[in-house]
Amino acid sequence: MPVTVRTRRAAGSPAPRIHSSSQVSPRASVGEGTRIWHFCHVMDGARLGRNCVLGQNVFVGRGVRVGDGVKVQNNVSLYEGVELEDDVFCGPSCVFTNVNTPRSHVSRKSEFARTLVRRGATIGANSTVICGATIGRYAFVGAGAVVTRDVPDHALVVGVPARVRGWMCACGEKLRFRGPAGSCARCGGRYRRLRGGLTEERRP
Prior knowledge:
Blueprint: E1 6-8, E2 17-18, E3 23-24, E4 29-31, E5 35-36, E6 41-42, E7 47-48, E8 53-54, E9 59-60, E10 65-66, E11 71-72, E12 77-78, E13 82-84, E14 89-90, E15 95-96, E16 115-117, E17 122-123, E18 128-129, E19 134-135, E20 140-141, E21 146-147, E22 155-158, E23 163-167, E24 176-178, E25 181-183, E26 190-194, E27 197-202
């Protein structure tokens, strides 16, 4: 681990663990308890929260913000413009972009679009999130989906392009509905559909 990597931790808290094969910029910031596995690259100005996990071959671009408790599985690139809030899960080989109309011979660095993944959301394996979208709190993007627009809180989206096909509990279980009222068989959480979205009525 490079001794110049900036870490944020209180006295007695666990230090980050960075595999020797990974390259972390001394101008990046890594939170306490975060684990960075083989062949990762974290660029200048990136900020990783506490207790995160970066799997093998993860790239984190300049200025990217990653919250606490985030898990990024193997072969994921978080390009400049991507922000992950707390407790986000990124499945293996999911894809983020930051330019809508890329050309190799035209510089569009001034056109990077922001992609925001809100707290607790899951991005499934091999899915693609087109830049400029916001993925709502506790939303669930199915494996292989292509997200081209904003995803509501708690929505389950699948397909190409991704469309809402159900609603998910904060614990990750698909909700069952009787009329507008929904419940979770796993944790007992209760929700209600309202104006095309979902509100949480009770969490155990």
